[in-house]
Amino acid sequence: MRALLQRVSSARVTVAGRLTGEIGPGLLILICAMRGDTEAEADQLAAKIVKLRIFRDAEDKMNLSLRDTGGAALVVSQFTLAADTSRGNRPGFSPAAPPDEGERLYRYFSDRLRAEGVAVANGEFGADMDVALVNQGPVTIWLDTAG
After folding, report:
1. Which residue from 96, 88, 106, 94 is spatially nearest to 39, judged by alpha carbons?
2. Active-site residue numbers?
């Protein structure tokens, strides 16, 4: 699985003008299941994200985790994280999991974060979404369970 994390002071997702998810301080997590991924990759990624120390402590050092701060997560499916740009100018997305498997793992990943005690809001899988965020820092981190 691949994820792009953005530390935010707020983030929201709308679909056709309808709010589907919104959080205050925490993480916007753009997530993509890759071909061959299983629940094991989702478990690994969720466990890593909740413990990743990328929030400021009292001394202004990145020393606190999402769990430490009580922050929330806005999880948004993003199959374009699987883009293969090695040939030509048009990206290919065949490394992404098929849609039914991608959606299953997306939902499973969100549930794993909830099981870790994180408040989770979601986008809408497969929809054309508008994502608005205030990136705090800015802090943006790329995670990949492969390799």
Report:
1. 106
2. 78-80
Report pLDDT digits (tens) over 59-74: 999 999 999 999 999 9
In the numeric block, the tokens 């922050």 are attached to: 71
Contacts for 117 with CB less than 8 Å, ≥ 6 apart: 50, 67
* Structural domains of the chain, count: 1
CA distances from 70 to 11, 56, 93 (A): 16, 13, 35
Measuring CA to CA, which residue among 27, 23, 34 is closest to residue 5? 27
Token digits for 67?
């769990």
In a domain, 79, yes or no: yes
62 domain-assigned: yes
- Domain holding 96, by residue range, is 2-138
CATH number of the domain enclosing 69: 3.50.80.10
Kindly tell me if the per-residue pLDDT of 120 is higher than 80. Answer: yes
Write down the residue that tokens 């993509």 correspond to.
32
- Report if residue 146 sits inside a domain: no
